[in-house]
């Protein structure tokens, strides 16, 4: 993942690419794509017509909404696909 050299090293990027977003939530890119289609992970932001990136804050929120072990999984839409 390319990083702007103008940013201070202690400032993490807010938007990350597909593979980095999948790794951020401890998933393979294929499973990450499946969770996006199910509405359990957020849709990407469009930077340009051909460049997509995921907002780390939205990924954090999606992680917060995942069920914990022992809880019943609610397969409802989390609102990411709106």
What can be said about this structure in brief?
The chain is of the alpha+beta class.
Secondary structure: elements and pairs:
Layout: E1 15-16, H1 18-24, H2 29-37, E2 45-46, E3 52-55, H3 56-65
Antiparallel strand pairs: 1-3, 2-3
Question: Quick check: average pLDDT?
Answer: 87
E-strand count: 3
Instruction: Give, in order, the helices and strands.
Output: EHHEEH
Q: What is the helical fraction, as a range of percent? A: 25-40%
Which of globular, elongated, flat, extended, rod-shaped describes the shape?
globular
Largest sheet: 3 strands, antiparallel
Strand percentage lies at 5-15%
SS-based structural class?
Answer: alpha+beta
Strand order of the largest sheet: 1-3-2
Distance between the termini: 28 Å
Radius of gyration: 14 Å
Spans of at least 5 consecutive residues whose pLDDT stays below 50 are: none
The number of distinct helices, counting runs of at least 4 residues, comes to 3
Model description:
- With 82 residues, the protein is of the alpha+beta class.
- Helices cover 32% and strands 10% of the residues.
- It is built from three helices and three strands, in the order E-H-H-E-E-H.
- The chain has helices at residues 18-24, 29-37, 56-65, and strands at 15-16, 45-46, 52-55.
- Strands 1-3-2 form a three-stranded antiparallel beta sheet.
- A hairpin with a 5-residue loop joins strand 2 (45-46) and strand 3.
- Helix 1 (18-24) crosses helix 2.
- The mean pLDDT is 87.
């Amino acid at each position: 993942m390319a990083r702007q050299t103008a940013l201070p090293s202690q400032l993490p990027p807010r938007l990350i690419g597909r593979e980095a977003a999948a790794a951020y939530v401890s998933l393979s890119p294929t499973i990450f794509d499946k969770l996006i289609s199910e509405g359990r992970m957020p849709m990407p932001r469009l930077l340009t017509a051909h460049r997509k990136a995921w907002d780390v804050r939205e990924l954090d929120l999606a992680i917060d909404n995942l069920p914990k072990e022992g809880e019943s999984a609610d397969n409802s839409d989390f609102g990411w696909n709106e």
